[in-house]
Amino acid sequence: MIKQFNNGRIVRLAAIAAATWLTISPAWAGYVQPGYDLQVVQSEQGVTHAGISYLTNPTWSISGRNTDVNSSFVIPTCQDIRFARLYLDIWGGNSAYTSTVTASLNGTPLATVNINGTGDTNTTFDATRTCVYGSGAGMWQIGYSGVSGLLKKDGTPNLLSFQVIDPAGRFDGRTVCASLVSVYTDPSVNQALDYYLAEADGTLRNVPGTNGSPAVRTLALAGINTSNVTSATYIAGYTHGTIGQADQLLFNGHLLGSNPNDVALGTTSDYGPNNLPFDVTGYLDGTNTVRYSVASADVGPSGDTYLRANIGLLEVAHPLPEPSTIALLATGAALLLVRGWKRVVASVKRMASGCLPEVSRT
Whose CA is closest to 113, among 55, 163, 151, 65? Predict the structure, then answer.
């Protein structure tokens, strides 16, 4: 009973410690006037029986200032969540405005984020941390770490609740969208997966405005295994674009999708997010570059005047590896060892039985 009590207590203390760490873990925030190019924050190669879920929920019409906003995500039923990253893209109204963002996932508090306006200067691209990116146009992206262990694997909704706190009432607080990227594993997924996740606040403008946002941004993807590829998909995530205007996406110089792409959803008043998947199976090579452009040279006069690329995800699938010869030999050797040991034990028992004196009968 004592052992059971202690084990239970240890589990409870570990859960409390994990929740406390998530709550007090600092967020690394940064502000740059023209925003940031996307950069890879997480990648893995050769993950067997793995798949990726990339889900985005629009939330623009709901004000999150000093009010709880709720959303939910359902990821595929699986055996394990290997990695996950949660995103909020928030409109402040002015780059100088400040606020505090609190959030919880399935009832567990996440790191409290302080948005310090133009004073934020400590950006780091690291999926092990909660990171904040400010573009200089009143837009902020939060990427939350430490969410993998909080997600449900049984196909039921994962509940997100967040609030943008600003007692002064200046920070707008509306969130364009909430996104969840998760890498899951399950025996039913018959592939080995390489993935590369990039994030930032990549604002683009056809005619660079006073905030200096460029017309072209690039993302570098290094170390890709180009052998034995069964499929490769690049998903370009945007918070919003402008109706009637467009951008062009290129992968290693190859045009993706239509020419040009229209990434806007809805109308200019609802700022709908958009995740566009592109088949890039035949475009992979040793050095890979994704090029986002609203420049007139690429899209003509219809180039988007305000476009935000916030997440990039490359998925490369390979066949599952065959069991290696070494593994097979090791399995065979283990079986032989077990059988040999059983024979030895049986022989010892027989010898011991034969040496015992007979029990006398009277």
Answer: 163
Q: Judge whether 231 and 281 are in contact, CB under 8 Å.
A: yes
Residue spans per domain, the chain = 2-318, 326-351
pLDDT at 15: 41
What is the strand order of the sheet 254-261 is part of?
A: 216-222, 287-293, 247-251, 254-261
Average model confidence (pLDDT) for the chain? 81
Calpha distance 48→321 (Å, rounded): 8
Give the β-pairing of 27-31 and 174-185: unpaired
- Phi, psi (5° rounding) for residue 118? -70, -5
Q: Is 215 helix (H, G, I), strand (E, B) or coil?
A: coil
Query: Whose CA is closest to 38, among 221, 186, 181, 284?
Result: 221
Distance CA(114)–CA(132), nearest Å, equals 9
User: What's at 77, amino acid-wise?
Assistant: T
Start-to-end CA span in the chain (Å): 51
Q: In this predicted structure, what is the pLDDT of residue 34?
A: 81
DSSP assigned state of 117: G
Three-state SS for 61-116 is CCECECCCEEEEECCCCCCEEEEEEEEEEEECCCCCCCEEEEEEECCEECCCEEEC
Residue 115: closest CA among 198, 179, 191, 172: 172
Taking residue 55's Cβ as centre, other Cβ atoms within 10 Å add up to 16
Amino acid at 227: S
Locate tokens 């007139």: which residue? 296
Lowest mean pLDDT among 97-111, 222-236, 241-255, 326-340: 326-340
